[in-house]
Amino acid sequence: MRFRETDLMTIRRDMERCPVANFPSPVTDFVTAVALQFFPGAKLDCAVTETSFGGLLDATETVARNCRIALLNAVDLDRTAVLGETSPRIAVREAGTAAAGEGTVTS
Description:
This protein is mainly α. It contains four helices and two strands. Strands 1-2 form a two-stranded parallel ribbon.
């Protein structure tokens, strides 16, 4: 499957119309949006996405919960301006990507 420039412009326009207009990481959110458009037509058995920003604020939160396995790594004090100033506060945000009824693996 190939994307035309018009496809990419449509994705960008849709993102700009999103009620959450202030994306924390616009470039990686755009790449995630493009990937999520690609996956259904690619006939994949499995797709792996990585949260670029962390937990609940990440574009990967749009993936249906019934087909996910959350992999949680150790909490790091990066992006504290948005995620929180302390390890416990960041952990709450990042753990929010896991949900009841889906697989969760921690490191």
